[in-house]
Write a structure and sequence with these properties.
By secondary structure, the chain is an alpha/beta fold. Helices cover about 45% and strands about 15% of the residues. It is built from 7 helices and 7 strands. It is globular. The relative contact order is 0.20. InterPro entries: Cytidylate_Kinase-2, P-loop_NTPase. Keywords: Kinase, Transferase.
């Protein structure tokens, strides 16, 4: 495990797992949304693809995303391990709902200095609505990729519950 891609729907715990793998394995962690969003109003970083390509070219890393379309294949081709947090819909929806509520209440600063705002809850691209709509399609995309011959060399660790993820993580031994 030298180049690890942690995938799943919003709320599955990708960032949490990626940070845990960073600590456990001593791999540098790159938060995909922090790379993608560069400024106010969720502006996209114009150097996002180039930055991601540079980081993915390193010998070891952990990324916490299926990958935005501009870099998705690059990450999957460079990874050696996929950790798929394939939790049930009720688990991820509860998590993404609570996370968005907390962020809205506390006005927590996010990527590029942005914040989740109450009025954004009415937009179709709000994380809660996005996660609900994308649960099935995102799961199907990950399943398709894990069975795609192009990515056959990848080690795929599919974790179907938070308990399974915790057990797997606690049983991992750091690489020499």
């Amino acid at each position: 495990m030298r180049r690890v891609l942690v995938v799943g729907i919003s709320g599955a715990g990708k960032s949490t797992m990626a940070r845990a793998l960073e600590r456990r394995l001593g791999l540098p962690y790159h938060e995909m949304d922090a790379l993608h969003f560069a400024g106010p109003d969720w502006a996209v970083n114009p150097a996002f693809a180039a930055d991601t390509r540079r980081l993915a070219g390193a010998e070891c890393w952990v990324f916490d995303s299926l990958g935005y379309p501009a870099v998705r294949d690059l990450l999957w081709e460079r990874a050696d391990t996929i950790v798929w947090l394939d939790h049930p819909r009720h688990v991820v929806m509860r998590r993404v709902l609570l996370r968005s509520l907390r962020r809205s209440l506390t006005r927590e600063r996010l990527f590029g200095g942005n914040r989740e705002k109450w009025r954004e809850w009415l937009r179709s691209d709000h994380p809660v609505w996005w996660a609900w709509r994308q649960f099935g399609p995102r799961r199907a995309e990950i399943l398709r990729r894990t069975t795609d011959p192009r990515f056959a060399p990848l080690v795929v660790v599919r974790l179907r519950s938070p308990r399974a993820a915790d057990s797997w993580l606690s049983g991992r031994r750091p690489s020499p």
